[in-house]
């Protein structure tokens, strides 16, 4: 087999990085899919070797590489474990890009399943539009408010269409009224002595169905002396697009966000979603061949902060109420492995009056949410989640805290699958902190 143009693109995009892997195997114990599937092709070093072989034209990109790459969670725990700092994320995303590029060019998507077509429409038409996402969120609020969900769940109509969607519909958090939503372009004054101006990134899923967490985030920032600006022209961060190989679309979204946040003149750009934050902190990697944008992206990256970092830096928070019971924490992979934020969430949770913090064994292991991985690969995702819930049970925690919307929904489903819904709750860290500060 000779190198075709797609193999050559893969060679240009990823071969040099792939060659830095010495195949030592230190990544194997860190990889959730290798542990659950037991195949070398589902390990980081196995996937890297397949990328090299595909780039050399020795194997077929679609037949031999696409599935192993698609089954990767992209948690990037392997990067932390790697003794020689192989940039697995760069290799993984390059492979995704070339696989998607070939599928689009050869019109494989036209002949693909309805699931793939729907996925592409959602990524390219729904997520880039704040207006459409908010409309979807508002319709979901009405659906919950009038009690339609009871009939839907009883009939199991969603399960008949999609078992994963049916499972996740049951554990959606109660949405806040659209009338309590913040507005894009709005500015919130500090509630204490002003320390700085920050620009807030609400995200897409967070904005659509978890706007309460975003509202509480804004109020917490106000409590520690922040003037909070919500840039008007911002949009989706592009993380889901990058993970599915739509790099061109992700780059368009990144440029729009950089421009929107630059105009805010804020000192920090704050987000509360580990996956979004990881994407925002790697914007500069999208502009290898655009020097001007690369410099602007670097400046953007340097100002990007997770909410927990800002609260620790500008705190302490005005904690007033006690939280009864044991709290444990499930790391967001992208917050921990990409952004390097590990201590701040734990520091904040340990500071809560009345609460007992217990560290979960293997809290750094992926919960298998993986963006939309749990929808595309439900059974594999559930194997990993069920094992995660066994670790959670051993803490005897009544509250499982997360820092990412996908992780939050995944852990809520884990609680449901473990029949613990009457004993344990999964919440975003912002919800815990806001309640102990007396913010509802």
Topology:
Blueprint: H1 5-18, H2 32-37, H3 44-55, H4 61-70, H5 77-81, H6 88-105, H7 114-126, H8 130-145, H9 148-155, H10 157-161, H11 163-170, E1 187-188, E2 196-201, H12 205-209, H13 211-223, E3 226-229, H14 239-243, H15 247-262, E4 268-271, H16 274-280, H17 291-303, E5 304-306, H18 307-314, E6 325-329, H19 333-338, H20 343-350, E7 355-357, H21 373-376, H22 378-394, E8 399-402, H23 405-417, E9 425-428, H24 429-436
Parallel strand pairs: 2-3, 2-4, 4-5, 6-7, 6-8, 8-9
Antiparallel strand pairs: 1-3
Please give the alpha-carbon distance between the first and last residues: 62 Å
What is CATH's topology name of the largest domain?
Answer: Rossmann fold
Number of domains: 4
The average pLDDT score comes to 94
User: Which descriptor suits the 3D outline?
Assistant: globular
Function: Component of a complex that catalyzes the oxidation of glycolate to glyoxylate.
InterPro entries: 4Fe4S_Fe-S-bd, 4Fe4S_Fe_S_CS, Cys_rich_dom, Glc_ox_4Fe-4S, Helical_ferredxn
Domain 4Fe-4S ferredoxin-type: 11-42, 62-92
Cofactor: [4Fe-4S] cluster
Task: Describe the structure using short key phrases.
440 residues, Fumarate Reductase Iron-sulfur Protein, Chain B, domain 2, Rossmann fold, 4 domains, five-stranded mixed sheet, 24 helices, 9 strands, 8% strand, electron transport, metal ion binding, 4 iron, 4 sulfur cluster binding, Cys_rich_dom
Descriptive report:
Component of a complex that catalyzes the oxidation of glycolate to glyoxylate. This is Glycolate oxidase iron-sulfur subunit. Keywords: 4Fe-4S, Electron transport, Iron, Iron-sulfur, Metal-binding, Repeat, Transport. The chain has 440 residues and is of the alpha/beta class. It folds into four domains: 5-105, Fumarate Reductase Iron-sulfur Protein, Chain B, domain 2, CATH 1.10.1060.10; 114-170, no CATH class; 178-312, 3-Layer(aba) Sandwich (Rossmann fold); 319-436, Rossmann fold (3-Layer(aba) Sandwich), CATH 3.40.50. Helix content is 54%, strand content 8%. The protein has helices at residues 5-18, 32-37, 44-55, 61-70, 77-81, 88-105, 114-126, 130-145, 148-155, 157-161, 163-170, 205-209, 211-223, 239-243, 247-262, 274-280, 291-303, 307-314, 333-338, 343-350, 373-376, 378-394, 405-417, 429-436, and strands at residues 187-188, 196-201, 226-229, 268-271, 304-306, 325-329, 355-357, 399-402, 425-428. The protein has a five-stranded mixed beta sheet with strand order 1-3-2-4-5. The chain has a four-stranded parallel beta sheet with strand order 7-6-8-9, with helices on both faces. Helix 23 links the parallel strand 8 and strand 9. Helix 3 (44-55) crosses helix 6 (88-105) and helix 13 packs across helix 24. The chain is globular.
